[in-house]
Amino acid sequence: MTEAAIRHRPGTPCWVSLMVHGLDTTQDFYGALFGWKFVPVPGPEPLSAYVRGVLDGQEVAGIGQLPPERRLPLAWTTYLATDDADMTAEAIRCSGGTVGVGPLDTGVDGRVAIASDPAGAVFGIRQAKARTGGGTGSAEVGAAAEVGVGAGSRAHGTPVWNELVTHDAAWVGTFYRSVFGYDLETTGRDDGADVLTLRLDGRPVATLHGVGEGLGRVRGSHWMTYFEVADTDAAALRVVELGGHVIDRPRETAAGRVATVTDPGGAVFSVVRSAGR
Hints:
Blueprint: E1 13-20, H1 23-34, E2 37-40, E3 49-55, E4 58-65, E5 76-81, H2 85-94, E6 98-105, E7 110-116, E8 122-128, E9 159-166, H3 169-180, E10 183-186, E11 194-200, E12 203-210, E13 222-228, H4 232-241, E14 245-253, E15 256-262, E16 268-274
Parallel strand pairs: 1-4, 5-8, 9-12, 13-16
Antiparallel strand pairs: 1-5, 2-3, 3-4, 6-7, 7-8, 9-13, 10-11, 11-12, 14-15, 15-16
């Protein structure tokens, strides 16, 4: 991929990353499931090792090794682009969010921070330096994005969409609008779900899905990464074969056929065969 300093529009989901305790076994899982190859690179402290998953020459995701003493729940983290990580971190604080880590420099990657919104959902901000990130939400997206899944790159194993699952989408949406300047659009659904689409320059880049009391106590509010697959049912079966679990079995949605699964370490993500693929 190019090393030119191409920047995403601020607020665009631009990278996904996973911090784990077993880096080798995690690479084995995602390599077998998605066909990723892995390239070791300098990662942010205090990680002892960090790799990027590469698919068809494109870096699509990062996986880092946590220190043994840090026994944290494992989760994929969505990063939102910014042109100034320090200013965005201050805007997060002023808007009712929390900055837990950083901003800090990460070598060739630029400057990053880990934050949480007022409902507790964790996300990252990323000020790019030389690399462009995985491009989730950055490509032109089609009608499928209106209901939650992007229609940009559709190669098997590519992150194609990011969705915030929370108690009240309208309430937390004001936080993201204040920090990143999104336009918020209510998405009509027959089931009356509380769903907002985040738009930048008229383009959908993510969704907020309010599920009220349906939000599980264990995970709480969280960002969900969707990975494109050639066959959702086959991918769900493969997850189990590789030591993961299926949380929500494959189901048809307006965006395509979706299943929610975990890797062997417990990190939750969704696999989707996008509608119209």
